[in-house]
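Sample pair:
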Amino acid sequence: MLKNRLKKNATLVNDIVNEIALITIRKDQNELVSYDKIDSLFSKELLVHGIKAEYVFDILDAQTNRLTFSEDESGSSELRDSPYKIALFPNTYLLESDELLLYFPDKESLIIKNSWKVLVVSILLIFILIGLFYSSISTIYKQKKLSVVKNDFINNMTHELKTPISTISLACEALSDKTLMLDTNRRSSYVSMIKEENKRLSILVDNVLKSAVWDSTHLKVNFVRINLHEVIQHVSQNFDIQINNRNGKLTLDLAVEEAFINADKVHISNVIYNLLDNANKYSPETPKILISTRNADNSIILSITDNGIGISKDNQKKIFDKFFRVSTGNIHDVKGFGLGLSYVKRIIDLHHAEISIESAKNKGTTISIKISTHGK
């Protein structure tokens, strides 16, 4: 009995000692904790690391699991879940240590604010790389198209130049062959053939050389007051022979009463001639071409309509490109270098006019030019 009583008394004394130690330790911890001191230390340390963001801190009591400074427990979940926490008294062995918690309410916005410059620069670099990639692909594609056009032009030019050269060569051989007894008429015929083919060669070479002049930014345009109808009639009379040779018909429908414009007479004449030439070349065996004029908003609209093979939607975007030629199918052999319409577009632009096209496959084509009647 004495042994049991001594054991109970020892247990009671041990409990009393532990309780006294617990009270003392808790008292010492609470005395060490100071909100203002911790706040000051946090503020200084964060500034040392260049952090100026708003922060919230508190101490989590390990025994009661309550926050020391916060009275409102409803909004404490973010603070309790914060990854920024540390034991306040790690050297306490008799009790579980309280934790010091730190939480940044605007952490995401702070990160975005500090990294927006890098983000913007990265986005700009991405767009620049995309632009460079697109530009490279576009350049390669254009170079490929240019190579195809160049090869077509060279092949076409070779064919165009080869024919008159061969004709002249054969005629010269016939004239120089003493074994052939040529009468005066036959000799004159060969001479005339050489003359015509030489003239044709000269025209072909001039067309190629003129293309360089047409591309020049210093192309001179002499603006004067001219009667558009007179220019149309003059070009039509000269061109009517080619239409008649193919049993075709050229019709004029000049509805404008006052057809005066400010323009370069030579270039406008060339524009009309080139359009008529295309209408004739790309028409069937009996071409029917209509030239018409009408008024529209202080402007004159000149239209040239044919009954030709027409132009597809895809080709309509390319017909004013240099050296581009529309495929003629099996209509007839169309000769040329693809320079006429590029010249037309250049002159129309220099006159600050507008050119448009309406066409469909096998349904003919209408090309219209809208030019102002008041100045250039």
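The chain has a mean pLDDT of 78.
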